[in-house]
Amino acid sequence: MNLTRRSFVLAAAIAPVAGGARAQTAWSRIEQAARGQTVYFNAWAGSERINAYLQWAGAEVARQHGVKLEHVKVTDTAEVVKRVRAEKAAGRAEGSADLIWINGENFLAMKREGLLFGPFAESLPSYAFVDTVGKPTTRTDFSEPVDGMEAPWGMAQLTFYADSTRVPQPPQNLAELADWAKKNPGRFTYPKPPQFHGTTFLKQALSELQSDRTPLYRQATTEAFGRASAPLWPWLDSLHPLLWRAGKQFPASNVVMRQMLADGELAISLTFNPNEAANEIVANRLPASVVSWQPRGGSIGNTHFLAVPFNARAKEGAQVLANFLLSPAAQARKADIRHWGDPTVLALDKLPPAQRARFASDMAPGQVATAAPTWPEPHASWTEPLEREWLRRYGA
Amino acid sequence: MTATALLFALPLIAALPLALSEALDRSAWHALWADPQLPRALGASVFTALASTLGAIALTLWLVTHLHATPAWARLTAALGPMLALPHAAFAIGLAWLIAPAGALARLIAPLAGWSAPPDWVTVNDPHGLALVAVLLLKELPFLLWSALALLSRPEVAASLRAQVALARTLGYAPHAWWWRVGWLQWAPRLVWPALAVLAYGLTVVDLALIVGPGSPPTLAVLAWQGLSDGNVARNAQGAAAALLLTGVLVMLVAAGFVVMAGLQRWGRRRVARGVRGRGFEGRRPLAARATVGSVATVYAGVVLALGVLSVAGVWTFPALWPQGVSGAAWAQVVQSASTVGFTAALAAAASAGGVLLSMAWLEAAPPRWDRRITPLVLAPLVLPQLLLMVGMYRGALALQLDGTVLGLWWVHTLMALPYSFTALAPAWRSFDRRYEWSALTLGRRRLAFWWRVKWPLLSGPLASALAIGFAVSVAQYLATQFIGAGRHATLTTEAVALASGGQRTLAAAFALLQALLPALAFALAAWAQRRPTMQP
Fold it and tell me: Cβ-count burial of B532 within 10 angstroms (0-12 exposed, 13-18 middle, 19+ buried)?
């Protein structure tokens, strides 16, 4: 009895260590296999700073783990989805992509069509630091459970920015935005849905106009959609005449809007990267007087991820790279406005103090001063009816 | 040789059904019909393509009529190369900046008008697509002029032309009167393929339509592209259906074009037969024509200048005439990507040579019956959306184990260059005087010797321009390189397009200038080859 109890206590004390050791050997086997592999990382390459960051990461994983990173520069992740889909149709066991920068719809398509390898994310050693509680979108990608099929990489949140010389008091919610537009007609707009940022603006408006947002996070029914969207359309009807070109035309994307803001054609623009304006100021493309803010009550946010295709040649190398990109050192550099300025997915309070200190940096011009709460994306089933109804009313 | 040509047509035959199977989904068509944007998007596509094509054709005929064999002709010839080399999207970015509400023109007017913020102009992305028409017209005009030039500079055409103009003069007709009554009646039909390429391009173009075209709704090509570029299979199918609809519209427009052309020819012949003299004695209008060429050249110069300034512009608020900050960051990126220049040029040279050799093989050897059947297939890459085609071709490449290889890349680039080199060569080949061949063979020469010593030198002009066009087409390939190369082989264009997706105008401008450089060299070489004295018949 005594013995049993002692051995029980002993077992309980050892178990986590033994489990950890097992995990460690499994991981060191992966690390070993990864050595010498080349990882073709298919990642959007529209920013020279992001490309430079990946070059740094490539040098680090080569030095630390003997893994070679090849950045395949893509313009649209859907291209990679199509490529992997074609490879699956052709029965190709060894594919062309090893790691993909992905989220939302593309992830959903790949997960449902069995185009992904995994689950792998939650067994990455660096995953222990991920803020799964404070940042629930690290485990639910656009209402789709991640299930370890992709590893979180960075955070995004709907953010507005404007030149403070033209907009001294940024509107903090939709009502204030409409008031501002009334005084400054033609100087705000949003990208035309179904462009991603345009749809997000609609979701933001939809969310702000609800007294209770919970139905938005459930499957959309015709009735629920009708009820929830009822206040949205009159609000848009009254807003549109105050927009750029009286709301009869809409810009194609948020990057077009950024250029229009830089040119002075617009006074307020929007983005999903809270540090975009700060980045542009550093790059000398926006004046230092530009400020960013998030609607005080909260704004739509999500997470972007790293996924491994089912037929990746270098699955181990891809995991080692993903683990490195998730490590405090890589995340701190990524969050640093001088390098990229992409908010971290880690929970800073889980980190040892030395690691946490890496994240401390002074406010750069153009950064969001006070972060607003993050609202999750409405359930994916809301997107389609929202876009369709918008197109029917304003699209043609 | 026919077998070789077929070998290249086969992957297309294989790729098409794979690509089209997506478009034959019933629910995709339902979704397309239900899209409220469809009627106006289709209208905008047809209007912009027709207006720009007809405008470019009319302007080409008018300019040749009034400038051919004048001193200005040589200057025009020299100016075409750089104009052709400037990538379409770069031209659109530059021109858009010149006329946009926050662009050069508005900044020049601002101090006079007292504007502190950009005016409410609808000069780009206008709902009717007029800006798109202007960009297409200005960008296709040099291509049509180049095609006309290649035709008219051929020794046997040039000789016949001189004789006929001289004869017309003795009958009291000025050269331009002869052109409208007789000249174009003979030679305009030979420009039909380049004109069709222009029409197909205008109807299916996506990047220009995104930069300067209407936005709400966009053109049908943009709607198709948005659907096809989605990760979702159902949206892909809707995009494929839209693309198929666009192809159907193109076929109908082409058929209508042929009917109209036949009617015009009949009318022209009757007019000539009746001997109607009409007006046309007041002489040519070289001054008006020169002024037109001058303004087009000025627009191009303005665009290049604008791109140059934009490529180094930092913060540049309205209405300042000069940027507040100048930055070399964009050019630093260009220098970083310059390592891809060698590979890009080698691939383009190989692909344009492949395209020309295949076209020649085809034109020499294909029986007429096959010719009619296969030609539409060879031209398919001109009209089908690249996204649709590339998914099919990638499957083909996977089956042949060509994905990710340089050989596969060469193969797909050759296929993409083929329709252009074919349209550049076919008129010259088809109208080549067969009596040269009969004489040579009668004199006991082998056919190969005849080709090498007589035919190819006589056709060196069209050959050189076909090589140059093929080169430029290969340099511009993005999707083909990315798909068939499986992301393994970077070119100047994959680098530039990937960076351009970030929407940085400074970067786009800097890369556009570099991208223009390679084809500009190719066109300059072609122009040089054409100016060399060729043997006289």
Answer: exposed
Q: Residue A82 falls within a domain, yes or no?
A: yes
Q: Say if B248 is an interface residue toward chain A (CB within 8 Å).
A: no
Same fold yes or no, B1-21+328-537 and B35-137+163-326 = yes
- Tell me if B483 and A83 make a contact (CB, 8 A cut-off): yes
Residues A261 and A310 in one domain: no
pLDDT tens string B248-299: 899 899 899 999 989 988 998 888 888 766 655 456 677 888 999 999 999 9
Question: CB contact, 8 Å: B102 with chain A?
Answer: yes
Query: Is residue A90 included in any domain, yes or no?
Result: yes
Are both A297 and A307 inside the same structural domain? no
A170 and A271 share one domain: yes
The verdict on A283 and A150 lying in the same domain is: no
User: What is the model's pLDDT at position B155?
Assistant: 75
**B352, pLDDT greater than 50:** yes
Is the torsion defined by CA of A395, A202, A286, A332 positive or negative?
A: negative
State the alpha helices, DSSP H only, in chain A. Answer: 2-34, 48-65, 77-89, 104-112, 174-183, 196-208, 222-229, 232-239, 254-263, 276-282, 315-326, 328-335, 353-357, 383-390
Query: Domain coordinates of chain B in residue numbers?
Result: 1-21+328-537, 35-137+163-326
Question: What's B31-81 look like in SS3?
Answer: HHHHCCCHHHHHHHHHHHHHHHHHHHHHHHHHHHHHHCCCHHHHHHHHHHH
Condensed to tens digits (0 to 9), the pLDDT of residues B445-502 reads 787 888 888 888 888 888 988 998 899 889 888 888 988 998 889 898 888 888 777 7
A260 touches chain B (CB under 8 A): yes
Residues A243 and A387 placed together within one structural domain of the fold? yes
The total number of structural domains that make up chain A: 2
Give every CB contact of residue A213 below 8 A, 6+ residues apart in sequence: A207, A375
Do A96 and A108 belong to one domain? yes
Q: Which CATH number fits domain B1-21+328-537: 3.20.20.70, 3.30.300.160, 1.10.3720.10, 3.30.1180.10?
A: 1.10.3720.10
Chain centre distance of CA A368? 17
CB contact under 8 A, B36 and A44: no
B105 has a pLDDT exceeding 50: yes
For the segment A8-22, the average pLDDT, to the nearest whole number, is: 48
| In the predicted structure, residue B233 carries a pLDDT above the cut 50 | yes
- Chain B residues in contact with A81 by the CB 8 A cut-off are 231
Rg, Å, chain A Cα set: 23
- Do A345 and A382 have their domain in common? no
Using a CB-CB cut-off of 8 Å, the residues of chain A touching B487 are 40, 42, 72-74, 80, 83, 96-97
Per-residue confidence at B435, pLDDT binned at 50, 70, 90?
confident
Compute the radius of gyration of chain B from its Cα atoms.
24
Q: Domain for residue A325, yes or no?
A: yes
Inside any domain, residue A17: no
CA distance A22 to B493: 48
Closest approach of chain A CAs to the CA of B496, in angstroms? Answer: 9
CB contact under 8 A, B403 and A89: no
B 21-60: CB under 8 A from A: 35-37, 39-41
Asked whether residue A389 falls in the same domain as residue A255, the answer is yes
CATH assignment of the domain containing A141? 3.40.190.10
For residue B236, what is the nearest residue in chain A, using CA coordinates? A82
Q: In one letter, which amino acid is B141?
A: L
SS (H, E, C) B403-455: CCCHHHHHHHHHHHHHHHHHHHHHHHHHCCCHHHHHHHHHCCCCHHHHHHHHH
Which architecture characterizes domain B35-137+163-326 according to CATH? Orthogonal Bundle (1.10)
- What length does chain A have? 396
Q: By residue range, what is the domain housing residue A71?
A: 35-155+302-357
